[in-house]
Backbone:
């Protein structure tokens, strides 16, 4: 039996049902992170909120990235990525990465970075915590985002409490 593709399933959904689902999805709490990657002389970073621990042993996390984002080929080519958790009250980093970054711009200019412990990924010094991840799986889940799963090779809690994010509507950021 063939299942209805996800993009068409949403089109057939009653608007009242869709609103209820959107409200419920928006209540799933998430952290705010700057997803980072470097390949050769290119660096990229973007705001990410769909990050989840996947395993205890070995320690792994997943991050969802909208299709077509400039960071995707850097992760695929370098086979690694970083996650810098934004601290509660941190406005400068949030403003920079929430608005997006112009193509060809190095988003980390003007930000203090710390030397990564395990992998060659940019790590923001003013993050609450960070993880350095080796890419183990890249999945196209046949939706508007792809899923990257990474084996954690390094990380630390630096300071402060994490920013926790709730959305009014689970169908938009």
Residues:
């Amino acid at each position: 039996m063939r299942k209805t593709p996800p993009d068409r399933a949403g089109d057939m959904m009653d608007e009242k049902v869709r609103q209820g689902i959107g409200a419920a999805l928006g209540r799933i709490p998430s952290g705010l992170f700057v997803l980072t990657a470097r390949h050769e002389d290119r660096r990229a970073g973007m705001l990410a909120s769909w990050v989840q621990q996947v395993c205890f042993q070995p320690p792994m996390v997943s991050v969802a990235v909208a299709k077509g984002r400039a960071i995707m080929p850097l992760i695929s080519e370098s086979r690694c990525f970083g996650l810098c958790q934004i601290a509660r009250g941190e406005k400068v980093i949030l403003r920079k990465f929430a608005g997006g970054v112009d193509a060809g711009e190095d988003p980390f200019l003007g930000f203090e970075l710390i030397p990564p412990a395990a992998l060659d990924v940019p790590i923001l010094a003013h993050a609450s915590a960070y993880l350095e991840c080796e890419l183990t799986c890249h999945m196209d889940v046949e939706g508007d985002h792809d899923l990257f799963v990474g084996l954690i090779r390094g990380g630390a809690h630096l300071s402060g409490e994490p920013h926790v994010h709730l959305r009014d509507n689970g169908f938009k950021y």
Summary: The chain has a mean pLDDT of 91.
